[in-house]
Amino acid sequence: MTEKGKDQKKKNKGCAGELDKLQQRVSELEKVAATRQQVERELRERARQQAVVAGLGQRVLAGIDLSTLLEEVTARVAETLGVEYCQILELLPDRDALLLRAGVGWPQRLLGHSTVDARPDSQLGYTLFSSEPVIVEDLRLDTRFSELSLLEYNIVSGMSVIIDGEEWPFGVLGIHTSRRRIFTQDDIHFLQAVANLLATAIQHKRAQQALQEAHDKLEARVRERTADLQAANEELKTFAYMVSHDLRAPLVNIKGFAGELSIALETIHRAFREVLPHLSEEQQQAILAAFVQDIPEALGFINSSVNRMNDFINAILKLSRMGRRELNLEPLDAEALVQATLETLAHQIEQCGAKVTVNPLPVIVADRTSMEQIFSNILTNAISYLGPDRPGEIEVFGERNETETIFRVRDNGCGIAKKDIGKIFELFRRVGNLDVPGEGMGLAYVRALVRRCGGHIWCESRLGVGSTFSFTIPHHLEEGGTDV
């Protein structure tokens, strides 16, 4: 072979090697492209699945009805995973069977009616006892299950996951196909994510239902209690009027007969003046003691008791009428109202030498008459129970928060023992200095008036130090409601 031929052969051999390398490179690039395409398909599929989960989540947040949600879930899951069958089965209370609540691919007559055993030898029952998704590549060859009713629908492959619950699972979410199929990890994660979303939605719906039922029961109970309270109030008002009438009639008789006895006593006394000289000294003293001291004293006790009982009856009627009077709500300058009340008490304040300080008070919406009586009774009470051993000091202040205005009247008077604080708002109950005039009704009036305005009242006190009476006026009165 000539040198030229040898060079040509060598050249041809080099070209063949380059061609092999090029073909190998092309093959590698094709594999890379195929892998990239596969990855891109998987990413697109994963993104689509995530978008479906997100869309279902938005439907849950929008408050969709549970039955509608279950129907939408089965339709979207079947479409997204490309299967012929999807089903949601609810575990019945006896936990022996599963009810087909919603599904795609199944005969319509089965939805909401058909049940399957929850025994662990079926794929669906087995899922309830498994902590992981149950995946079947070929049901005909799977040895885990002996119950094979799904084969009646030519089902080959499938996957099912638990829809969890608080105490027991709600049920099972499953998909099936008549084709042999290997499900990817993305498919598994997608189905589990949908099941988790369903579990959250179902628990939320159940909590809402329980809350609504509790709310309905509470409303019914409130209506019942309100009706009972209104009936009791009416009975109490009627009773108060009946009692006052029945008590006042004998009081009038007692007072009248006591007056007649006084007149008769005067007549008898004049007649006895003529008889007295004919009696012994001892008899004269006995008769004079009876006519001059004993009988007038007894009649005096009768009259004072009748007057006191009459005051009690009037107090009961006054308290009863409070519930009948309609509130006239209007904006009130509380500071001006307190100052006007103090002007009516100026004589008492001057007599005891007390210093009264009124701090800036807010404007409120309330019933003027009620507020005047509330402040008048509390301030009168504070003045009446100031101690004689130190200069009296009374301070009025108030503060407004988000829901109510709180007024306080503080004094440095004799104070109230801890054991007696609970008694001071009761009818006819008086503690401390019993020489203070009154029937023991002032604070009972105040409590009734404060409650009528929708607020509440309380007292903080230390014996020998002083007391602070606090009460609230709610802001909802500003919107025109009393809620009482």
What's this, in brief?
The protein has 484 residues and is α+β, with helices and mostly antiparallel strands. The chain folds into three domains: 63-183, GAF domain (Beta-Lactamase, 2-Layer Sandwich); 231-322; 329-479, Histidine kinase-like ATPase, C-terminal domain (Heat Shock Protein 90).
Write the layout of secondary structure elements.
Blueprint: H1 3-61, H2 66-81, E1 85-91, E2 97-104, E3 115-117, H3 123-128, E4 134-136, E5 157-163, E6 171-177, H4 185-275, H5 281-322, E7 329-333, H6 334-344, H7 346-352, E8 355-358, E9 363-367, H8 368-384, E10 393-400, E11 404-411, H9 442-452, E12 457-462, E13 466-474
What do you see in this structure?
- The chain has nine helices and 13 strands.
- The chain is of the alpha+beta class and 484 residues long.
- The protein has three domains: 63-183, 2-Layer Sandwich (Beta-Lactamase), CATH 3.30.450; 231-322; 329-479, Heat Shock Protein 90, CATH 3.30.565.10.
- It has helices at residues 3-61, 66-81, 123-128, 185-275, 281-322, 334-344, 346-352, 368-384, 442-452, and strands at residues 85-91, 97-104, 115-117, 134-136, 157-163, 171-177, 329-333, 355-358, 363-367, 393-400, 404-411, 457-462, 466-474.
- A hairpin with a 7-residue loop joins strand 5 (157-163) and strand 6.
